[in-house]
Write a structure and sequence with these properties.
The protein is mainly α. It has three helices and no strands.
Amino acid sequence: MDIPDWIRWIFFVFAAVQLLFVYRAAHLARRAEPGRRTDPWLEVADHAVGVVLSVGLALGAVSVLVFGAPVLLAVLSWQGIRSALARRAAPTAPAPGTGAAPGGD
């Protein structure tokens, strides 16, 4: 792939910024409660694969894109499915006046 040098440097800078996000997400994932660790670790995987793809683009390695893009697609799909299921399972607030009857009635 023929990528201009100034675009390569942009990808390297983008990868460096993503490394900061990987560090932050890993720190939060390690401190998460035992039952709630999947989402933070998916966030770490999302940023880590993003770093790999950015460096692959910067170096012009098509093979990194061929193997990294499906991994990123899987991670993002898993995140989307988990968030959709969490929204579906979240209890909704009862409508006013439909709660339990007050005592004595």
